[in-house]
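cron nightly-structures :: item 1 of 1
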Amino acid sequence: MPVPPRDYVTLAAAAVDRGGKYTYVLIGYFWSVGAPLQGETACFGGEDLALQLGDRRMKLAPFHGSARDAGISQSIHRPSTDAKPAIYSSDLATLGLIGESAHPVLYCGAEAAPLKYELLEDRLPALRELVRRLSN
């Protein structure tokens, strides 16, 4: 039986150490399962994103450069070889807010009718642990 079409976004966090000075990024991997329906829209990476964390909404602007330009030399938690990566600048405080959010929701695309992506697999405990280690 064919898999129903579905678009996904996987967010992974990374801390980049450049000579003892850390920068933080979110890597968005954009991927699909099944054949898209005619006329259906999807995110492809590089769009502005909005992350809804309870009553707080944060805009994520894409980093205009490659993962290597951001200091990342290998894929981090890439869900599929077909997944297209996009880098979003962040900071440790934002990573902490995401990790503590009960139900983060990601919006992609136009403000009038953004696409909504809800949490499918909860890896927030791993993000909280990363933030805890980086904060010490």
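cron nightly-structures :: done
The CA atoms of residues 11 and 28 lie 5 Å apart.
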